[in-house]
User: Fold these one by one.
Assistant:
Number 1:
Amino acid sequence: MLTPKFRAQPSTGSKKHAHAFVFFLDDTCALTPSLRTLDSAHSGLIARALAASEFEGKTGQSLVIVGTKDAASHVVLIGLGSTKNVKEITLEDAAGHAVSALNAHKIHSAELVVELSSAIKLKPAAAAAHAAFGAKLKTYRFGKYKTKEKPKDKPTLHTLEVVVRETDGAKKIATTLLDVADAIGFTRDIVSEPGNVIHPESLAELCKGLAKHGLKVEVLGEAQMKKLGMGSLLGVGQGSVKESKLVILQWSGGKKGDKPVALVGKGVTFDTGGISIKPAGGMEEMKFDMAGSAAVIGTLYTLAVRKAKVNAVGVVGLVENMPDGNAQRPGDIVTSMSGQTIEVLNTDAEGRLVLADALWYTQSRFKPKAMVDLATLTGAILVALGSKRAGLFSNDDKVAESLARAGEEVGEIMWRLPLGEDYDGMINTDVADMKNISDGREAGSITAAQFLQRFVNDVPWAHLDIAGSAWCKKPLATVPAGATAYGVRLLDRWIANVYEG
Ligand code: BES
Ligand code: MN
Ligand code: ZN
């Protein structure tokens, strides 16, 4: 990822200028002061190009003007939309669009000029910092395995400066944000890595490495989990040659003795479906089935780098769901750590089996103030909500509402779905306390959430089904196509809003 720098004045007119200058324009399309100066230096070229174009300053719009007299320079205009709607996220997204436009035009260096009309509430320093954050996020790339790529096929942009008069203020805000971007890059990396590289053992090792940021990291292996009675989680991993792991990450930045907020993640490093095996076509996508755990790990990383004033714990259940001679069979009955028994009717409904023990362990050991789990849990959530919004389920309106609000602020949005006794009844079975699938295809994401709720012991809890939002096939404003790291920005902001006040 490219880390932008800051400068107080654009280099326009100087001998060593950038290849391109980016300006943000709201939907009045009024030229900002430096744009006006540039326009007069070019006898009105910019105003003429703007008038002749379709550009209306709406969000997502861009206009690239070539032929300005500074050799090789381009002027790029990026829409901000209506001044009354401009927020931090607007600048992040606009800067992300700028990065796309710059790379599309093979530009090597650029300056993003942040000059906002007085109708915009956002402070210039914050606006600039968030522009830098959005730009950095958009320059993420998972390119490590492309060994034969020609330079001309790689993104060209290698120098980016954000221009704002208040450079000191902007730098101060940006320091944390740019660190958060690193945590997001780390999260995207581990989600993108294939199953032969990221498996329970290697992911647990990576977690250990986060101790250098001040996190306390504990790793439980199969013997320890067996002692704790985690028959539900262990059943999922028993067909794999890799040892299942439970990783506990703790950040203690809050008051001593203050109960933590807990995050729990599904970490199925590869989901073949097990004996209830998935069809071959598209199975490779299931390398991302640990995205919930990656979001938890990435959030704890974020809390540590920004020294958040909170006590937080992240628990991730890491398993590989494989079919082999030792694999769990459909019909097997397992006993979870909670003591409740589960009839495993479909070995492909494995995420809930992993979370059952991870959730129970978390609430019983830490007595958290609130507990949020993230999981690529059901294909049905994609059918219901598509790939932008996560499914939100909760037993607590305050938790649900604060999560949804944080999501709106950072652009990681969700939609709440119901829980209820009628759905809960759908996972009852004659031979055990519950079964891991319901009978038909109805309400598949809800019955999965109901299953989880049986393991939260009335702790204020929310479940985010991120099977759709963890991966994007098409790029988003600040996310190149691929792993989105959905959850990191959201949980970081949620914790800041609710627990660090
Ligand atoms: N990891 C999958 C969920 C998934 C499916 C994520 C498609 C992204 C895209 C999960 O383990 C799974 O296989 N769920 C089953 C549940 C079913 C057997 C009740 C599903 O959704 O089909
Ligand atoms: Mn599955
Ligand atoms: Zn799965």
Note: The chain has 15 helices and 19 strands.
Number 2:
Amino acid sequence: MKNNKNSNYIKIFDTTLRDGEQAPGFSMTTPEKVRLAKQLEKLGVDVIEAGFPAASPDDFKAVELIAQSLKTTEVCGLARAMESDIQTTWNAIKDAKKPRIHTFIGTSPLHMDFKLKKTKEQILEMTKNAVEFAKSLCERVDFSPEDAGRSDKQFLVEVIEVAITAGADCINIPDTVGYTQPQEFGELIAYLIKNVKNSDKAIFSTHCHNDLGLATANSLAGVLAGARQIECTINGAGERAGNAALEEVVMNLSVRPDFFNFKHNIETKEIFATSKLLTLLTGQKVQANKAIVGKNAFAHESGIHQHGMLANRETYEIMTPESVGVKSTEMILGKHSGRAALAAHFARLNYEFTKEEITEIFLKFKILADNKKDITDEDLHILALGENNEKRLEWHLKSYTVSNGSDKLAEASVTIKNSETGETKTAIKTGDGMVDAGYKCIDEFFGKMGELTHFGIDAVTTGIDDQAIVNLRIQTESGKIQSAKAGNTDIVKASLEAYLDAVQELKKHSQ
Ligand code: KIV
Ligand code: ZN
């Protein structure tokens, strides 16, 4: 009996790397995805949905690497209800300690009639075949009736019964378009558990989108009604308005045990570090007043609040910042720190570098430490990001000079070097500002790959000597969007490195 409506353990299924990564501006490189997956494992999530392997060879590779890298967490891959997707997904996850296949098919009239153009009978048949095939390959299988929130309840019962008979262990109920209200979603879960004849053979799960700002409330209503798994994402990343935010559902369970009385496996002190890592990897900031992880979530500005806080924190604080790992920026290394200390801190942050790699990064660390007094975890993430980007790219920035003035055109000279052959190329261009001139040099090397549709610079922490992350997106004529990022204390250098990265990725895929 799996549907432990009576068990009080809530499984946390993180889909940041799948539903989250699908959202515009959230794409990550393979090493970045592996890095985030390791942090999610440290956070204690039960399942990581690592991607959609059939979507592209890059997605496949990333899921495969994550499956091979994680030690304890279940690694799941998403597949449409078709044999080829399911086989590809299995090929990607089969090396995981605990592999899981998540297959789905639309069940609402809109999805069946307009997207899939299938009858109810055909959907039932496809569900049976997909789940049976997935189960023949993999011990753990999740099934989702997509757009369940707008599906006919009686038909949902039929589809779910077929899925469970075919071997699904978990039935995930997606409110794909974030349409349902908490009471309604709770009632839907309760109805399904009550009316699906074999519901005791699977656990029920929630997957709620946030189009009306109800994703967290709907997920919690789902568990109150008997669901025992929540699909969610860090910072609420996901399609359109996103998914239920992991930090919100988990902290509701943790802060209100008197109300929920559920257990989970999340190490809440890792929440803030995970949120920051996602921001750093994607350049997508969370709003200042975002619950749990926003900049203001634990800030007390008004005199009355400050007075109350000084008298007793609990007057205005229902959880401590420490409980979710918020701490003031910590200086962890400085210019006198040695290679061993650097290596130890990278190991603590779950980066695996060889001795030779550490020797190379150490040189960059020394330059950084000369320019910047306090080296923090964020700085180390940026160093690692740069190192991984350099390893990935055929050409990297060797040197550059830029000049500009109020009465002259900006000019840039950029030299790039081939990582394998050592060959160098130089271009000199003028432009509308130093970055534009530099980008024209890079266009000269590779040809113009597309239009720059987004360019953003963010300081990682605070202070004039801090590192900035440059985030950009290029859109090609055919509509392909490539994003890239790079960090440095020098904004021009970070801008050139990010552009060089995006252009080379586009070039690679156009060949
Ligand atoms: O929102 C959705 O319906 C999904 C499914 C693939 C689970 O993301
Ligand atoms: Zn979704």
Note: The mean pLDDT is 91.
Number 3:
Amino acid sequence: MPKILVTGAGGLIGHAITSLGLPEMAYLTRKDADLTDFTATKDVFNVIKPDKVIHLAAQVGGLGGNMIHSGEYFCNNIMININVLEAARLCGVKKLVSFMSTCVFPEACQYPLNEKDIHNGPPHPSNFGYAYAKRMLEVQSVAYRKEWGCDYIVAIPTNAYGPNDNFNLEDGHVIPSLIHKCYLAMKNNTDLVLWGSGKPLREMVYSKDIAELAIWALENYSEEYSIILSHGIETSIMDIVDVIVRKIGFEGRVIFDTTKPEGQFRKPSDTTKLRKYLPKFEFTSIEKGIEETVKWFVSNYPKIRK
Ligand code: GFB
């Protein structure tokens, strides 16, 4: 029986893949196995014996988490990736797709970001540990393909958001953190304070879209080098805040705290490769995606990751 194993199933994209309700799937969360431990990783692969793997497990955070936990993110992500790809190889996994992020690209990179430039310079300092660890996913996948013919590929989504994200106020990504902040500001009748000038631009992709693209890539993409998964449309943090405020119904003051970090100003991506394969794929609009995320947040508030 063909079986697809999803690592990191408890996270944002893992949750979106689970919600697709596909047959013959196996889901692994951090409670099931410590993937920073090679023996534990090998053991769990030997029990499940997957044919294919979607490898999402990682230690991730937003701008805040990345700046504070640079060493921890480097160490844990390097170990998880080395262990998962090696356990998959030893276990005879036929296809594996793993995930990077556009923050792995060099800080001084030509725009739009193109898959061929990943290793051409140091990443933005705010992502130092995470970005270098994640870049090694591509190195390991290409090296395994060259020596052992492993069909291991790497996908690069831009900024993802959606239900089941980490809504932590300090470590979370911008959309979940701001949804949480806005919810609290409305509840407590205070100002909504966000980081920076609100001018930076991001390409926000809804988690359900990435889940569908992950399944597509697993079945259809076998190029040696990575593929960016995005629509290529940038939205300013200010415009994102505007959508969040409307969806939550917040009517108070919005304040920009410019003593807080701005991060990279923009990181627009080149979607030519994806569009060559999937010219008609329709991405969820930011209006609809944030609306669904806010609905999920409000109805699950007591038990969400925060
Ligand atoms: O999602 P985010 O933290 O990550 O967004 P990055 C940061 C942008 O949102 C900055 C602004 O311009 C911040 O100034 N912002 C405003 C806020 N208010 C807030 C807030 O309350 N929380 C946060 N977090 N930001 C991440 C990388 O970078 O991109 C990760 O650090 C990952 O490694 C991810 O790759 C995709 O887009 O800056």
Note: Residues 4-165+203-233+268-285 form a domain with the Rossmann fold fold (CATH 3.40.50.720).
Number 4:
Amino acid sequence: MTDAKQRAATAALAHVSEGTVVGVGTGSTVAHFIDALASCKIAGAVASSEQTAARLRARGIAVLDLNATGPLPLYVDGADACDPQRRLIKGGGAALTREKIVAAASERFVCIIDPGKRVARLGGVPLPVEVIPMARELVARTIARTTGGTPVWREGVVTDNGGWILDVHGLVIDEPAALEAALDQIAGVVSVGLFARRPADVVIVGDDPPWSW
Ligand code: 5RP
């Protein structure tokens, strides 16, 4: 698995241009990407989490404020599941909100995954939802009632934004973009780990050799 993640991460370097600012996601696949990125002459990176910012700095890469960079040409991130339309479930590392922000600020989103993340249809893995802590039970009740899924509080986890995570199990996701929009409307939801309205532009799978679509 480590080899597959590393292969996907290394292949993503082909999308990096010298002198640019790169948006960088979060997770074990992205950790390989950061290590490889250290050899590129980029202007700096925008981090999607404190964990990523720390690794970027440790590799000598300048961490920049998204408010100061303008649009980014490239965002590279992993995923927990990816369907044939490059729609994703993300948030296994609880960084979904900042990941969504940096993805939205980027012209091209390159997703790097190991082969186990490819799915015919989203819904096999729990869907993370970041919530304002006081709204946890309200959001959980609303999601259970309106979707039939079972929200489980990821107890003990606090996001970089001070939010909490509900993992919604047992969802049947027929229309990912519609579900994403509906969940976004619930009071107390900060963001939803469905990346369907803004899917990846390219997905690189770390098979040997890596391939993309
Ligand atoms: C973090 C994420 C990650 O991209 C996702 O969990 C995949 O992680 P990994 O590369 O470790 O398998 O969404 O919030």
Note: The domain at 2-120+197-212 is CATH 3.40.50.1360 (Rossmann fold).
